[in-house]
Write a structure and sequence with these properties.
By secondary structure, this protein is mainly α. It has three helices and no strands. Helix 2 packs antiparallel against helix 3. The longest helix has 32 residues. The chain starts with a helix and ends in an 8-residue tail after the last helix. 7% of the residues are buried.
């Protein structure tokens, strides 16, 4: 089954292959940063912010699931960052 949204995205922003190891490292860092931002936003939006608002009560299952998914996103980001070599020291 073809998804028209993915075909449109590929036409608008085609994914080019990495030309060098530097490009690959930057793509891994970009993906890791996106995963960290996703995990932090999910954790703050579902777990932390409802604690400051008396009008909304988030069920425990929803908070626990958000906590687990945010933790998985952060773990995956750290795993990706382990595969990028660190710059040489002074």
């Amino acid at each position: 089954m073809r998804m028209p949204g993915i075909a449109l995205l590929r036409r608008l922003a085609p994914i080019k292959p990495a030309l060098s190891t530097k490009h690959r490292e930057e793509r891994l860092r970009l993906l890791a940063t996106g995963l960290q931002n996703f995990g932090l936003a999910l954790f703050l939006g579902v777990v932390v912010l409802p604690a400051f608002s008396a009008s909304t009560i988030t069920p425990f299952r929803t908070r626990f699931l958000a906590f687990v998914v945010a933790g998985m996103a952060e773990s995956l980001a750290f795993i990706l960052l382990r595969y990028t070599p660190s710059p040489p020291g002074p």
